[in-house]
């Protein structure tokens, strides 16, 4: 279009009586309509790019929380259809996603009330409902234990704010879920071990003890290595080494929370 505009202007100049200087100035003057439209399009594309980057920055952590929730929903469906092995693995993937979403939100300065609510909903889905179904059988007492486990996660998420920066009150439910999922895989779903462990995890979650905030991706380098090792274990190893790895990781948080997992950046 620009080429045809210049040709048309050249023809006009040949037919008119302007001087050579005037002809050159007119020829070099852009067609206002075309260039205005081009400029508006360019500016709108720039604005769209900026808005897209801002949208991604604000919602990257929310996307991780949503992914965690999807892992929980998929784990629930697997448990209901008898695929216990897959259900446990999905809980462990949710474990990694939950550790990452808070770190990403703080790193991108994108913390928000919506993000906090999404994180709680995702935790309740994956580490409450989905994990409790790992304990479900046809026995009445096992079903009661499932409900008690869900209620303990609910109480832990809703009422156990410590009021101290970077400190939890009560064991974070992601660690109890990781322990149950790993034991379910390692023992082949041995219900005696799972029942005893579930009762212990319920007591840890509803107690008043303090645990440090698990800022794994924002702390010392060795903690980042631990997290990277967890990712590698999920996707690149057989289930037994991975389960032992996650079991040791979670138990160390319970037994040595201050000495190992304190939030020294």
TrEMBL record:
Record-level GO cellular component terms: membrane
Transmembrane segments: 144-168, 174-204, 225-248
KW Disulfide bond (keyword) present: no
PROSITE patterns noted in UniProt: CDP_ALCOHOL_P_TRANSF
GO biological process: phospholipid biosynthetic process
GO molecular function per UniProt: phosphotransferase activity, for other substituted phosphate groups
Record's keyword annotation contains Transferase: yes
Keywords on record: Membrane, Signal, Transferase, Transmembrane, Transmembrane helix
Annotated signal peptide: 1-21
InterPro entries, A to Z: CDP-OH_P_trans, CDP-OH_PTrfase_TM_dom, CDP_ALCOHOL_P_TRANSF_CS
Record-stated family: Belongs to the CDP-alcohol phosphatidyltransferase class-I family.
Listed name of the protein: Transmembrane protein 269
Gene: LOC109868936
């Amino acid at each position: 279009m620009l080429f045809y505009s210049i040709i048309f202007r050249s023809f006009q100049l040949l037919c008119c009586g302007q001087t050579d200087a005037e002809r050159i100035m007119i020829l070099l003057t852009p067609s206002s309509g075309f260039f205005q439209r081009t400029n508006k399009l360019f500016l709108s594309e720039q604005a769209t790019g900026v808005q897209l980057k801002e949208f991604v920055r604000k919602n990257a952590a929310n996307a991780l929380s949503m992914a965690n929730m999807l892992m929980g929903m998929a784990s629930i469906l697997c448990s209901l259809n008898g695929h216990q092995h897959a259900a446990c693995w999905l809980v462990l993937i949710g474990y990694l996603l939950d550790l990452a979403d808070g770190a990403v939100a703080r790193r991108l300065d994108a913390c928000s009330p919506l993000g906090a609510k999404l994180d709680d909903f995702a935790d309740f889905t994956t580490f409450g409902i989905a994990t409790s179904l790992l304990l479900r059988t046809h026995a009445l007492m096992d079903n009661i234990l499932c409900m008690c486990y869900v209620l303990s996660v609910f109480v832990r998420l809703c009422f156990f704010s410590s009021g101290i920066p970077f400190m939890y009150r009560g064991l974070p439910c992601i660690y109890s879920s990781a322990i149950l999922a790993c034991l379910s895989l390692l023992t082949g779903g041995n219900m005696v071990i799972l029942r005893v462990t579930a009762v212990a995890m319920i007591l840890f979650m509803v107690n008043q003890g303090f645990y440090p905030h698990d800022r794994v991706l924002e702390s010392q380098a060795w903690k980042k290595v631990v997290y990277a090792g967890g990712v590698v274990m999920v996707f690149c190893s057989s289930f037994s080494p991975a389960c032992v790895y996650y079991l040791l990781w979670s138990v160390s948080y319970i037994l040595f929370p201050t000495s190992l997992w304190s939030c020294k950046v």
